[in-house]
Specification:
2 copies of one chain form a homodimer. Chain A is α/β, with parallel strands linked by helices. Chain A has 13 helices and 10 strands. The longest helix of chain A is centred in the middle third of the chain and has 16 residues. At the A-B interface, helix 2, helix 7, helix 8 and helix 13 of A face helix 2, helix 7, helix 8 and helix 14 of B.
Chain lengths: 302, 302
């Protein structure tokens, strides 16, 4: 049984999910958050469904030591490719993603009969058609324009922001058709992208609804906690809300210093170096849960 | 004991090492090559030494089933960070990398007393100072200008090439100081970069020696095989050289189709989909070689 004082567990391929953490800290001031960034195996956006599903299952299996009351898959690629299979594998854990909340906001963003909705995301998210399916469920007549924008994450990870000419040129290339065809709404289908919102806004103009999946996701989590009766409230915490910093514990599969260095840009406050959980811990856990010493290595000859 | 008919094993984080394969096929027409691309965990360039060293050890451990007469670490990041430790772990295997051959060529590229040598590479390669150390061993008075160029790999992987305005702008930014200070030689310190050689040449001009570590690496391997007495020759193979295609077998940890789709750009000929070796096979091998069912998972509390 989950309890309101249990933490929310947020997982991502790297640092992007920290934009979701930021939104959760704002929206839910009494919650504790455990963050897991799979920095040894990032990015997920160019990898396949079976590989990403396996990674996410390993991380959620690992999360159980924290007794999370809710798990947020704060990575669009992982939400798009792995969510149904992961939910089936952990029926006792409440798990939500970032695609459904973003799609709901996109479907409601325009009063037009046949709104034109743009979606930018990683290669894998676009290929999965997850946004398309989720939006059409709610607005059958929506027209969609989807573009994979694989350079935005490495640009942001390199520290480039809204005034960088390379960012500007990449965005102009990627958004060319969308601005020409005058989209009504634009879904930022990757948790890194809110960091480029000012540059994106400059290019698409003031009339386009720019949908930040991190914020939508936080709203969604808030509603789910209330529904499950596990939301933390001031009364339960017996005191005022703690500082953001003290409500967050973080774990990564590689390079804790990098998160400490770059995290502030996503979170708005400096974080201490997170705890390292190298990938072998996750694979050893696989072996343990199967009750096997080690699976047979298939014989492959040259 | 190695035999001349044993294959050369080439490993890389992804597809970049195929430029080394291309150079090896040209330089050594009687050799068979086994290629391994760690596509589930790529890129290596933003990750740490312990993580990359572990990945490379796993792959070389796996390579032993092919009885390679020589292993090439065809990734600058992995060569820079892992080579000494990996050689110590596999003393019975001949292992070489791409840094030493590139550094040797850079040190010899200019007749000047104090040549100015530029190096572009991934973040991790630059941070390791491996090129600096290897060049200074040979040319103590060389002056070095080093720049991390983390966007070039994702640009190439997205399919962008020499005439793309974004590639042009990124190169102009990254090479600004080098062109201003008039470098004598430029080391392409990542196996992907030779695909952008025409654009790089356009920016640095005809007078700069552009050093392609793939070609230097193939020369180095040829010399090492002769020295070890394991070079394959026409006589040994009892017939004419086979087609390039039939001399190469490939393995990847994710997305075999991607290599089949993008490989031709690196190799100059189409490849069949390689065989999938998912990462869990490598971790199971760790467990097996330790003779343990599974190491103890450290207890970490929230």
């Amino acid at each position: 049984m989950s309890h309101p004082t249990d933490p929310i567990f947020v997982l991502d391929s790297g640092l992007g999910g920290l934009t979701v953490v930021r939104a959760l800290l704002d929206r839910l001031p009494y919650e504790r958050i455990v963050y897991f960034g799979d920095t040894a195996r990032l990015p997920y956006g160019s990898k396949t469904r079976p590989t990403i599903t396996h990674f996410v299952k390993q991380i959620i299996g690992w999360s159980e030591r924290h007794h999370p009351k809710h798990v947020v898959v704060a990575c669009n690629t992982a939400s798009a490719l792995a969510l149904p299979e992961v939910r089936a594998a952990f029926p006792h854990i409440h798990i939500s993603g970032v695609i459904e909340p973003g799609a709901r906001a996109a479907a409601g963003a325009s009063g037009k009969n046949e709104p034109l909705i743009g979606i930018i995301a990683t290669e894998a998210t676009i290929r999965s058609r997850a946004y398309e399916i989720a939006i059409r469920k709610r607005r059958q007549r929506a027209r969609l324009l989807m573009t994979a924008t694989p350079l935005l994450v490495p640009m942001i990870e390199e520290g480039r922001r809204n005034d960088d000419p390379l960012v500007e040129l990449a965005l102009r290339q990627y958004l060319r058709q969308m601005t020409r065809d005058r989209i009504d709404a634009l879904v930022l289908g990757c948790t890194h992208y809110p960091l480029l919102k000012p540059a994106i806004r400059r290019i698409v103009g003031e009339d386009v609804a720019v949908i930040d999946s991190a914020q939508q996701c936080a709203e969604d989590v808030a509603a789910r906690l209330v529904e499950a009766g596990t939301a933390a409230t001031m009364g339960l915490m017996m005191g005022p809300a703690s500082e953001d910093r003290s409500r967050l514990s973080a774990f990564v599969t590689d390079d804790p210093d990098r998160l400490a260095r770059l995290g502030a840009d996503f979170l708005g406050f400096g974080v201490e170096a997170p705890t390292l959980v190298p990938p072998e811990v996750l694979y050893q856990q696989d072996a343990g849960s199967l009750g096997l010493p080690a699976m047979t290595v298939p014989e492959i000859s040259a």
